[in-house]
Amino acid sequence: MPITIRRSLAAVLSLSLATGLAACGDDDDREAATPAEVCDAAVDLGAAFGAVPEDPAEMGAFAAETLVPVSDAFVEGYGDDGPEAEAAATLSDAFAAMADSGDPSAFEDPDVAEAQSVIGADVHDGCPLEAIDVTAVEYAFQGVPEELTAGRTSFALTNAGVEDHEMVLFRLNDGVDMTLDDLLDAGEEAFADLTFTGVAFGGPDTTAYTVVDLEPGTYFLLCFIPVGGGDDGPPHFMEGMRQTITVT
Fold it and tell me: Which of 172, 148, 159 is nearest to 220 (CA)?
């Protein structure tokens, strides 16, 4: 992922921070407890991270067209009572403010991060999907299966390390026959052969969530955060924090 794209996501990635541990679950046939419109909106929110405009002048329109409908679905699905309803209202206020001002700084609010945590955990545990619990350490993803079945999937990224970590998910474009190592050796131009699918980011002792509809194909997990957290260190994926998943 080109560094400019990763930085364009940074303003909203804090929305994925969480303070609790991920709920468990791995059965896509389990009974759904979370409202269907919430499950659908969670996928839309995950996809929105890949469409964040790099031009700050476009952020207001992006929020109005992409994020506000997501929060509306959360509010409608959860109703008026309970912690999820309160979390949905918090996100609704933040997205509306961003649509009005074009200022993404609302996502730095700890209350917004906690709201996303509450909804992410509920979706991970209560929607009809495959729930995958991933642990991030220095420098590897643990608990990621090599194969998954196509369909709706929630990833819960628990950071058990001492540095910030992210999990950026890409799908290899159809017709491209390259391994992950081949792509990394080819440099930034190789990312034209990949399609952004989802992202989760979190500091130490946090859990972040992303929900995606996986199509059959080859997927790669990468962490682009520099070693040591500065701007000059090699990205974590160069130290081994990368993985390939085959979806059938």
Answer: 172
CA 27 to chain centre: 20
CA quadruple 36, 221, 98, 164: dihedral sign: positive
Structure tokens at 51: 């469409």
Enter the tokens of residue 117. 């945590």
pLDDT in tens, the chain (248 residues): 333 334 334 434 433 433 333 333 444 444 458 999 999 999 999 888 778 888 889 999 999 999 999 999 999 999 999 999 999 999 999 999 999 999 988 777 889 888 988 999 999 999 999 999 999 999 999 999 999 999 999 999 999 999 999 999 999 999 998 888 888 888 778 788 999 999 998 889 999 999 999 999 999 999 999 998 777 889 999 999 999 999 99
Full 3-state SS string of the chain: CCHHHHHHHHHHHHHHCCCCCCCCCCCCCCCCCCCHHHHHHHHHHHHHHHHCCCCHHHHHHHHHHHHHHHHHHHHHHHCCCCHHHHHHHHHHHHHHHHHHHCCHHHHHCHHHHHHHHHHHHHHHHHCCCEEEEEEEECCEEECCCCEECCEEEEEEEEECCCCCEEEEEEEECCCCCCCHHHHHHHCHHHHHHEEEEEEEEECCCCEEEEEEEECCEEEEEECCCEHHHCCCCCEHHHHCCEEEEEEC
| pTM recorded for the entire structure | 0.84
